[in-house]
Write a structure and sequence with these properties.
The protein has 380 residues and is α/β, with parallel strands linked by helices. It has 2 domains: 177 residues, Rossmann fold (3-Layer(aba) Sandwich), CATH 3.40.50; 196 residues, Dehydroquinate synthase-like - alpha domain (Dehydroquinate synthase-like, alpha domain, Up-down Bundle), CATH 1.20.1090. Helix content is 46%, strand content 18%. It has 13 helices and 13 strands. Strand 12 and strand 13 form a beta hairpin. Helix 5 runs parallel beside helix 6 and helix 5 packs parallel to helix 8. It is globular and about 60 Å long. The structure holds glycine. The site of glycine (GLY) has 6 residues, from helix 5.
Length: 380
């Protein structure tokens, strides 16, 4: 049996169901995989400058081999492209490229491109189909699946958007070879999230397989991505619009978003790193509230340390605000409802749940403890 055979994970959403294909070498074969989705043999690809330089020609050649003509809209790389001006540019360029109501657009890139192109497709002609071809590990295991699309407001991240499901997700594991080690690890934090929130066996598997997965074992990478997207597909098909269970996917994000805001959404802390540290803090909070054992946060920190992933506030360079300011940043989170902040807590690894009655003093105490530990570690 070929260990690198392509896997298919279905996302069951009635008329909006779609498949996620995961394998090696899929980008050069994209035309064969995607041709059945196109009403006519032409498409427009939305990408960013960094990804386009690495993968656009491979994709276009792959499409051309199946007789599909393509043109590309390329925007600057980075979070700043999730903005009204860039959205306007993309929508107008899609119209200028004569994308019709029944055409299918391709989003080729990481989370920023998936969110931006997906939102452009959501509003273009009241909804045009699109394919996600995610090129970062984070986008492969999280943002390309589930139909969350949108841009940022000066008042906060992802505050403007729509649910618009892709019609297919094509995941080529080979593109991960072009990521920096740091970017790969930041995405790996989101892989671990699926173990921590609902599958203790997957966490144990990652503890064992993680180092080989990091050093490039493709069969293990395919398996990790398949298990992650299968977990996400299950959650999304049960709770597409996040009225309940889908909120579990925000494990670590309330703390993580506050840390990202405190570090100015800069290179000091990547999103996945903030989530990894945030997950550690969510488990520390759970332990403080007597929900899980004191050893549980240490087990998680040990795995992150073994992988070389940021795991505590001590791993964030530069100054950080105090606990009260971090708590104030959390209060701006979009998970606030009726003035009450939702936290994802856990009774153990794989046993996460949503709580809306966390005492703010407990959160402050966890942050103060984490900040104290940070200041007791001499900076390099
Ligand atoms: N990234 C969290 C979600 O898709 O719900």
């Amino acid at each position: 049996m070929n260990a690198l055979r392509t896997r298919t994970v279905p996302v069951a959403l009635g008329a909006r169901s779609y498949d996620i294909e995961i394998g090696a070498g899929l980008l050069p074969e994209a035309g064969a995989h995607l041709a059945p989705l196109f009403r006519r043999p032409r498409t427009v690809i939305v990408s960013d400058e960094t990804v386009a330089a690495l993968h656009l020609e491979t994709l276009r050649a792959g499409l051309a081999r199946a007789g599909i003509e393509s043109e590309a809209i390329v925007v600057p790389a980075g979070e700043k492209s999730k903005s009204w001006p860039v959205l306007e540019r993309v929508v107008e360029a899609l119209l200028a490229a004569k994308v019709e109501r029944d055409d299918t657009v391709i989003a080729l890139g990481g989370g920023v491109i998936g969110d931006l192109a997906g939102f452009a497709c959501a509003v273009l002609r009241r909804g045009v189909a699109f394919v996600q071809i995610p090129t970062s590990l984070l986008a492969q295991v999280d943002s390309s699946v589930g139909g969350k699309t949108g841009i940022n407001s000066p008042l906060g991240k992802n505050l403007i958007g729509a649910f618009h499901q892709p019609c297919h997700v094509l995941i080529d594991i080979d593109v991960l070879d072009t990521l920096s080690g740091r970017e790969f690890l930041a995405g790996y934090g989101e892989v671990v999230k699926y173990g921590l929130l609902g599958d203790a066996g997957f966490f144990d598997w990652l503890v064992e397989a993680g180092p080989r997965l990091k050093s490039g074992d493709k069969a293990l990478r395919i398996e990790a991505v398949e298990r992650s997207v299968a977990a996400k597909a299950g959650i999304v098909s049960r709770d597409e619009k996040e009225h309940g269970e889908r909120a579990l996917l925000n494990l670590g994000h309330t703390f993580g978003h506050a840390l990202e805001a405190a570090t100015g959404y800069s290179d000091r802390l990547l999103h996945g790193e903030g989530v990894a540290i945030g997950m550690g803090l969510a488990f520390a909070l759970s332990a403080r509230l007597g929900l899980c054992s004191q050893e549980t946060p240490s087990r998680i920190a040990e795995h992150f340390a073994a992988m070389g992933l940021k795991r505590s506030l001590a791993d964030i360079p530069g100054d950080l605000p105090g606990a009260d300011d971090l708590l104030a940043l959390m209060a701006q989170d979009k998970k606030v409802s009726g003035g009450v902040l939702a936290f994802i807590l856990a009774r153990g690894i794989g046993e996460a749940f949503v709580s809306r009655d966390v005492p703010p003093e407990a959160v402050t105490a966890v942050l103060e403890e984490a900040l104290r530990t940070r200041s007791s570690i001499p900076s390099a």
